[in-house]
Amino acid sequence: MDGNHHSLEDIHASVPIPAGVWKRFLAFSGPAFLISVGYMDPGNWGTDIEAGSKFGYQLMWVLLLSNFMAVLLQTLAARLGVVTGRDLAQACREYYPRPATFALWVLCEIAIAACDLAEVIGTVIALKLLFGLAYIYGLGIAAADTFLLLALQRRGVRLLELATLGLIGIIAGSFCIEIFLARPDIAAVLRGFVPGLDPAHVKDSLYVAIGIVGATVMPHNLYLHSALVQTRSFPNSTPGKALACRYNFLDSMLALNGAFFVNAAILILSVSTFFLHNHEVETLTDAHQLLGTVWGTAMAGILFAVALLASGQSSTLTGTLAGQVVMEGFVHLRVRPWARRLLTRLLAIVPAMIAIAVGGNEALWGTEAVDQRLLSLLILSQVVLSFQLPFAILPLVQFTSDPRQMGVFANRSWVKALAWICALIVIGFNAVYLWLQMDKWAEGVENPLWIYGSVGSVGLLLAGFLGWIAVYPLWAGRRETRLEPIIPELPGVRHRRIGVAVEFEGADNAVLAQAAALARSYGAELIAVHVVEGLAAAYYGPAADDRESRNDRLRMDQLVAHLRADGLKADGVLGYGAPAEELVRIAQERNFDLLVLGTHGHRFFADLALGQTVSPVLHRLKIPVLVVPSGASSAPTFPGEDGAGPVR
What we know:
The protein is mainly alpha-helical. The chain is built from 27 helices and seven strands. It has helices at about 20-30, 30-35, 40-55, 60-85, 90-95, 100-130, 135-145, 145-155, 155-180, 185-190, 200-215, 220-230, 240-275, 285-295, 300-330, 335-360, 360-365, 370-390, 390-400, 405, 415-445, 450-480, 510-520, 535-540, 545-565, 580-590, 605-620, and strands at about 15, 230-235, 495-500, 525-530, 570-575, 595-600, 625-630. The strands form two sheets. A five-stranded parallel beta sheet has the order 5-4-3-6-7, with helices on both faces. The protein has a two-stranded parallel ribbon with strand order 1-2. The longest helix has about 40 residues, at about 240-275. The radius of gyration is 30 Å and the shape is elongated. The two termini are about 45 Å apart.
């Protein structure tokens, strides 16, 4: 892996590790707390309230099981990042074939959008409960509020972690007070840790159980955690990595077990407030109102809304970072955080707006239609997360169990067994639920084959892809063992004409230096190529006589003279119009043996345009193409600059 390409590069290795056990512990603490906010986001609220209000304490064991899986898997994710210096997305890109990598990326983006949907819903509901703000205005705030949090990232990862810890404190403090008001039956709570589903409502309780698993063991958090641990500047040695793994494990234990108690508090509060008083909760608004009614104080409802708003805001931040890690790791496409966040927000807001638009007709659906649909959408988003979870777990277990990648840090046999058990539990839950849900959907249509043919086909396709991921290491390992040593033939290479693309914008030094060195070593002719762009160049071609064309001709003459004065056999050619088309045409007409291009370090939109130049050239030319990053080169000095005469 290229050592210059790091996860979250702007904050990579930005936290120094001091001496002393206590200071070192504080320095390593933070990544797991950022991760933990995803374990108490509005999606968890929906599933926990649904579980407690409908099934009492019967699904408490699912929370405990989910927390155990979360601690184990997040520890493995942290270890992967510490030991290999790669996040999970980067590891997938390097290991799996390109089509499989693309499919994993798409599935992960769907999971992030589903998670973001839950955050949007939680935010708009909380704003309505606290300020009476209409949902449509809440959506606007939910789309924009994240940019305030993104500003924190520029101030360093420690400020991000501090802000997140403050929001976690608001959530935890609110529920401590709520539990004190509820005074639950501790014996009944403990009985809820005995595994089992509601015998009278197996399918419904299984649905909510799957939602709890998806809401707790969130797949994108595995990608994010493997990147966040790399923000610590620990020694890149075996003892240094062992130290980092040990402290990150402690960080995960504290943060994730704290998140478990918050989730348990939500479920216990739901049982004490709604289930034991025979109140059916169909919306989060109902929960807010009933809290105040049952416990006789408006503070209960206010604390509920404040905690809901804090959970939505804190989860927004981790969603931003996870999206950045996934996009950069899988497809090496880097966009600015605000652009990445806006894209993810739009994917989440559109379903929420549709739900509001469809359910907002009170004459048709009733006054509670919007709230009911939002809660249903909230729970559905968590089920989507659960279905995507195996596609993150299997690669994680495979990578961390491979001694070739992890060395002495590879999973021991008992850890590997526990990790595979976690994967099988998630896969088993999903398979059983999908079968039961298809039966339910089939009952409501005239021809059940439509359901079995469509949903069943998608399920089989995903199952086949998951099975392929599971067996791919065996196939790849067998293929590697069968490879015989290759004795390559190395005939002499002779370059007679070397082309170099220049821009005349002060960023050509690195490109010209590489091209000139190659030309000298081969005794080749160096031909500088510049493409004149603009309307005049595109329309008139070489006959263009605008200011840009005249200046570029003068600059080319000056550059060629400079190269010849330096002892090179040099020439210059100008193209007119589309850069990619002209570079290919000139290279073919002048019979280049090698073409040297530069990246020139443009910003995002210019990088897109440059990619539209470099990529077609690479694919259409049959000669070697050397792409040179500009680095930190200063502007080249050609004749006509620095007092030698005007250039423009």
